[in-house]
């Protein structure tokens, strides 16, 4: 057995588990918010800070600390982020006030931003081509999808047994402790740094002006704004539905998460066999159609089409993330991952917020918010169509395949 290949397999599984673990906490917030509202007698706006605050923290952590993966190394950055996450998670069981929990959510977001950028940069170090990088990213996000399903399920089981939702963070913290110890003792690939430039925040800011960085970051922003429409506002859109498919109301959101996770594993096969620009264009086209028809035909169509859109959403974000990072030398992967993460988390916070504001302008009717989501989907599709027709990254990816990955083949 090839020792290097075996080591990379362990590192891949470590990365998979990290993404699954943090999805368990971030995507369980929707189940936690109603409990917090009852416990502290909060409004929806106030309780919603449990979602917006950590997303904003992840965004700024990515942009401020993403370069650490390039400067301090992947291992140190991952271990540092996980250590902060572990300590912060255990603190949840000690507090009993909304301000305390909100503060911990912010720190949790910061720690996720740190170890996530380190993990994203690491994927390039263990990939033998930009194509394999994209396939691995789909697998990573597939495990994120599993965590997004498992987290709310754990919270639901805890509440059924009369236990506090805070125990989710104790579980996540313990899992993170194991992952941190693994990260410390595993030998990572050498970070092949060729540049003599000083890596710092100013360097990251300069990268934000790069056409590849800003292009893929904007794509991530609009994609996540569309995705969040499903798990933040779809339950509100469908809450008054009482038609023949009423039984589907309970399963709509789980179906979305399952299809999104399954699609990402299927995406590994698709990306390895088909042109990624074509896959992105077709997928974003179906998302636009599903959202548009849902708005035009109403709740009965939305009940079927919005959860089904998870299958077509599945491959988009991992591919955006991978190709955006792969357009840069490996020595800049941490910084670029931080920039894309900034826009990703920004879309997760601002997209649902904008939909809520538009809905409130028309009598708190979520239908109008989904018109805005359909516009986001249209922008995403037009961007993918432009990318397919002109393929502006083709030569850049080809060059970096030859320069940055040849030694691993």
Give short descriptive properties of this protein.
409 residues; mainly alpha; Growth Hormone, Chain: A
Please describe what this structure looks like:
This protein has 409 residues and is an all-alpha fold. It is built from 18 helices and no strands. Helix 15 packs antiparallel against helix 16. The radius of gyration is 21 Å and the shape is globular.
- Overall form: globular
Given helix and strand content, the structural type is mainly alpha
Q: Tell me, what is the CATH class?
A: Mainly Alpha
Radius of gyration (Å) = 21 Å
Q: Separation of termini?
A: 16 Å
Q: Quick one: biggest sheet?
A: none
β-strand percent reads under 5%
| Helix count, DSSP H or I runs of 4 or more residues | 18
Order of helices and strands: HHHHHHHHHHHHHHHHHH
CATH superfamily: MFS general substrate transporter like domains
Helix content: over 70%
Strand and helix map with partners:
Blueprint: H1 3-26, H2 29-40, H3 44-47, H4 49-65, H5 68-71, H6 74-91, H7 98-125, H8 130-160, H9 167-185, H10 201-207, H11 211-237, H12 252-273, H13 276-297, H14 299-313, H15 316-326, H16 333-361, H17 366-390, H18 394-404
């Amino acid at each position: 057995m090839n020792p290097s290949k075996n080591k990379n397999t362990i590192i891949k599984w470590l990365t998979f588990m990290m993404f699954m673990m943090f999805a368990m906490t971030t995507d369980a917030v929707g189940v936690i918010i109603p409990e917090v509202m009852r416990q502290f007698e909060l409004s929806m706006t106030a309780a919603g800070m449990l979602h917006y605050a950590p997303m904003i923290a992840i965004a700024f952590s990515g942009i401020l600390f993403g370069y650490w993966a390039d400067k301090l190394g992947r291992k140190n950055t991952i271990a540092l982020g996980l250590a902060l996450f572990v300590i912060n998670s255990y603190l949840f069981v000690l507090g009993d006030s909304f301000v305390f929990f909100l503060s911990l959510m912010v720190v949790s977001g910061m720690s996720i931003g740190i170890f996530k950028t380190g993990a994203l940069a690491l994927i390039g170090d263990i990939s033998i081509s930009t194509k394999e990088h994209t396939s691995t990213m789909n697998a990573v996000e597939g495990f994120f999808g599993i965590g997004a399903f498992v987290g709310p399920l754990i919270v639901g089981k805890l509440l059924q047994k009369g236990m506090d939702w805070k125990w989710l963070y104790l579980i996540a913290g313990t899992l993170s402790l194991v992952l941190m110890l693994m990260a410390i003792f595993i030998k990572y690939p050498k970070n092949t740094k060729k540049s003599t430039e000083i890596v710092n925040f100013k360097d990251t800011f300069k990268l934000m002006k790069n056409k590849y960085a800003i292009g893929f970051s904007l794509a991530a922003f609009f994609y996540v704004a569309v995705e969040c429409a499903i798990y933040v506002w779809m339950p509100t859109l469908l809450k008054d539905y009482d038609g023949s498919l009423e039984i589907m109301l309970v399963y709509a959101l789980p179906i979305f998460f399952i299809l999104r996770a399954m699609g990402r594993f299927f995406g590994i096969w698709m990306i390895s066999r088909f042109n990624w620009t074509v896959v992105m264009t077709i997928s974003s086209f179906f998302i636009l159609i599903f959202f548009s028809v849902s708005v035009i035909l109403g709740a009965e169509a939305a009940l079927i089409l919005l959860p089904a859109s998870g299958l077509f959403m599945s491959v988009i974000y991992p591919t955006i993330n991978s190709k955006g990072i792969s357009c840069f030398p490996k020595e800049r992967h941490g910084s670029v991952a931080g920039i894309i993460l900034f826009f990703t988390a920004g879309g997760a916070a601002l997209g649902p917020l904008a939909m809520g504001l538009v809905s409130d302008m028309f009598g708190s009717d979520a239908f109008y918010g989904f018109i805005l989501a359909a516009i986001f989907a249209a922008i995403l599709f037009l961007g993918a169509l432009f990318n397919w027709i002109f393929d502006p990254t083709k030569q850049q990816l080809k060059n970096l395949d030859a320069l940055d990955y040849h030694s691993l083949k």
